[in-house]
């Protein structure tokens, strides 16, 4: 089994533009969706569109609340099969709600709460990684984020 | 919600080169892996490397035997977010074993059993879709295949 180096994994967790998130649906089936994400601190962060959905909360958010254990897959398809690779994270997902983050400025002389600091760092990382957010309004206002921390990494690349 | 047309879905199920398969692992977590696949008849077919693995059967095969309900995701990432799309199939997976398919030629005048015919059509579809199999020996001999039929299709594309 050919695993990727730790450096290669780290770089792709920083740079790769897309992952596929698998969660468990209420009926016990697996559910998948492609996501964008950025690394900040020890977590990967993915934004949820803040607009109200006709069906209520997005399935991935509902699923994660009930079953926080998820899978994240990064991979590249290439017609040259000697260039194939994937990285799979067994991760725990957390829904980070905008309502927890007030709009009031942090009082002078008071340390920024670590939760807010992590949230702001995540937004910064997402805006920095994806220039698309300059024109896509998703990250304006107070978006909901999913935060993923992982316990296990598996990787593979073609020999 | 912008869904893809039936024609667009059909074409991508025929032509798109990669899908992500999510299964349920024995511990209840979701598990993902990128797969190649080809459509033949009413199913999508994906080959399993026939070589013995040090860890026994591949996780996806073990998982599917215990939990046949899976998710298949086709999607394209593009830096131009107006070009994003995905197709998600709620599918049932079946492990089709080479041992069921004898090497003896079909007796003259006897109809090919439908199971064998479907298996051969699947191999043909895989070889036709992926010229890589001319040099990758995976489909030589009697490979194990996963056959996916689906009950529900969801799709989305950026407006």
The backbone outline of chain A, from C-alpha atoms, is globular
Share of helix of chain A, binned: 10-25%
Spatial separation of the terminal alpha carbons of chain A: 9 Å
Secondary-structure element pattern of chain A, one letter each = HEEEEHEEHE
Report the biggest beta sheet of chain A as strand number plus sense, adding barrel if it closes. Answer: 7 strands, antiparallel
- Please identify the structural class of chain A as seen in this structure: alpha+beta
The greatest inter-chain interface is formed by: A-B, 31 and 30 residues
Which regions of chain A contain 5 or more consecutive residues with pLDDT less than 50?
Answer: 103-112
Could you explain how this protein is built, in words?
The structure is a homodimer of 159-residue chains. The first copy, chain A, is 21% helix and 35% strand. The first copy, chain A, is of the alpha+beta class. A seven-stranded antiparallel beta sheet of chain A has the order 2-1-5-6-7-4-3, sandwiched between helices. The radius of gyration of chain A is 17 Å and the shape is globular. Chain A starts with 5 loop residues before the first helix and ends with a strand. At the A-B interface, strand 1, strand 2, strand 5 and strand 6 of A face strand 1, strand 2, strand 5 and strand 6 of B.
Break the fold down into its secondary structure elements and pairings:
The structure is a homodimer of 159-residue chains.
Chain A: H1 6-15, E1 19-24, E2 30-35, E3 38-40, E4 43-48, H2 59-66, E5 69-76, E6 85-96, H3 114-129, E7 144-157
Antiparallel strand pairs in A: 1-2, 1-5, 3-4, 4-7, 5-6, 6-7
